[in-house]
Write a structure and sequence with these properties.
alpha/beta, four-stranded mixed beta sheet, 252 residues, seven-stranded mixed beta sheet, 2-enoyl-CoA Hydratase, Chain A, domain 1, 8 helices
Length: 252
């Protein structure tokens, strides 16, 4: 495996065996029960297609079932070698969205008509929300559309001071968040502000996102993943039963 991300410390992580994915990378911390799951399509701002969502769900579910894992870092690899931009995720890949939804591809790269065009992103949102582990969104750059909703459903969000940007584009592409991304955002920032985020589609800096309550902390870009790993170590030092029950209570 080559360079995962410019922020990635190879000495701090080891690949999780059995996960040879195309669109997602999956690593475990070398010295405590934190895992790192990352979108790995930086050239398209980590936009997700159906196989991306399948791989993401599989990695998250593996973490959910691992008794020695207490914290999940969800992030995006980068930057893009093509345009230099950082991203968490820009949501569904609009290039493969057809009349029947997002298309799987066959071996030749053409639309696979034998598989339904559907992103199972609601299942991913539900898994993040209800898995008995703390899921931290580590946002190094753009969090847009469905990517924005994914950071919202995570338990905590860390954001890069220099590069993180938050924007909701669902109405621009004739889509809507029918899952947790809209309702939970309203709980975090209030009804009026949440409607502004969706209806106007403004771009917000990391500092603005923190001020409104949808980001926990803004840190310098070069220590973003280091800070996230420290948070994971802190969480893993606490009672897993207490963490599990606290998350259950917060979700009521």
């Amino acid at each position: 495996m080559g360079t995962v991300s410019d922020l990635f410390d190879p000495d701090a992580w080891t690949p999780v065996e059995g996960f040879d994915s195309d669109d997602v990378t999956y690593h475990r911390a070398a010295d405590h029960g934190t895992v790192r799951i990352a979108f790995d399509r930086p050239e398209v701002l980590n936009a997700f297609r159906p196989p991306t969502v399948d791989e993401l769900y599989q990695a998250l579910d593996h973490a959910r079932q691992s008794p020695d894992v207490g914290c999940v870092l969800l992030t995006g690899n980068g930057p893009s070698k093509q345009h230099g931009k950082w991203s968490f995720s820009s949501g569904g890949d609009q290039r493969i969205r057809g009349e029947d939804g997002y298309q799987y591809e066959d071996d030749e790269g053409d639309a696979d008509e034998t598989q339904p065009g559907r992103l199972h992103i609601l299942e991913v949102q539900r898994l993040i929300r209800f898995m008995p582990k703390v899921v931290i969104a580590v946002v190094p750059g753009w969090a847009v559309g469905g990517g924005h909703s994914l950071h919202v459903v995570c338990d905590l969000t860390l954001a890069s001071a220099e590069h993180a940007r938050f924007k909701q584009t669902d109405p621009d592409v004739a889509s809507f968040d029918g899952g947790f991304g809209s309702a939970l955002l309203a709980q975090q920032v209030g009804q009026k502000k949440a409607r502004e985020v969706f209806f106007l589609g403004k771009t917000y800096s990391a500092e603005e996102a923190a001020e409104m309550g949808m980001v926990n902390e803004v840190v310098p870009h070069d220590v973003l993943e280091e800070t996230a790993l420290d948070w994971g170590e802190t969480i893993n030092g606490k009672s897993p039963t207490a963490i599990r029950m606290l998350k259950y209570a917060f979700n009521m």
